[in-house]
Write a structure and sequence with these properties.
Layout: E1 7-12, E2 18-25, E3 29-35, E4 38-45, E5 53-59, E6 63-64, H1 68-75, E7 87-97, E8 102-111, E9 114-129, E10 135-146, E11 165-179
Antiparallel strand pairs: 1-4, 1-11, 2-3, 2-11, 3-6, 4-5, 5-7, 7-8, 8-9, 9-10, 10-11
Length: about 180
């Protein structure tokens, strides 16, 4: 990445950002959840967005599916093993500009110490000045991953065929960032 004078640092506002996921349950239903704690930094070159980069991490223990027993199971070694692997991280390797508001963000996603390249389809939602003098920007990004590729393999087969938990996980990120300086 080439850094230019137009590159600005933005930090993710964890209070106004969310990482959500959806996965099939018993083949037909969809279970959704979220991670409540996210942090990260964006280096944004507004004149040349392809020179921008993102670094972010998610606190695995903050998983929330609105079912405490399921959340505890997700934190266990059957799924994320939050004790041994407390963070999910993402570091971009490139940004591909599609048009003025759409982009592809490519980078390494690390879950359980397994790194895989993922492509997020992103949309720039705009910027605004808040009442406290901060400049804020918003972005939405989506991707789909195979949880098995990250060694998140727990499952049980059901009598009628299929698995209790699907392999494909749809992820949606709604990120609000605050410009620094």
């Amino acid at each position: 990445m080439t850094t230019s004078a137009a590159t600005r640092t933005w930090t993710i506002d964890p209070t106004h950002s969310i990482v959500e996921f959806a996965v099939k349950h018993f083949v037909v239903a969809t279970v959704k959840g979220r991670f409540r704690e996210i942090e990260g930094t964006l280096q944004v070159d507004e004149a040349h967005p392809e020179n921008s980069s993102v670094s972010a991490s998610i606190d695995v223990a903050s998983v929330d599916t609105n079912a405490p027993d399921r959340d505890a199971h997700l934190r266990s070694d059957d799924f994320f093993n939050a004790e041994k692997y407390p963070k999910i991280t993402f570091r971009s390797t490139r940004v591909e500009r599609i048009d003025d508001t759409h982009f592809k963000l490519v980078g390494g996603l690390t879950i359980r110490d397994v790194i895989r390249e993922v492509v997020l389809d992103g949309e720039y939602e705009g910027q605004v000045d808040d009442p406290w003098g901060n400049r804020r920007a918003a972005f939405t990004a989506t991707t789909e991953i195979s949880r098995k590729e990250f060694n998140v393999k727990w499952n049980e087969l059901i009598e009628t065929g299929g698995a209790v938990v699907g392999d494909k996980v749809k992820m949606t990120l709604e990120v609000e960032a605050i410009r620094q300086g």
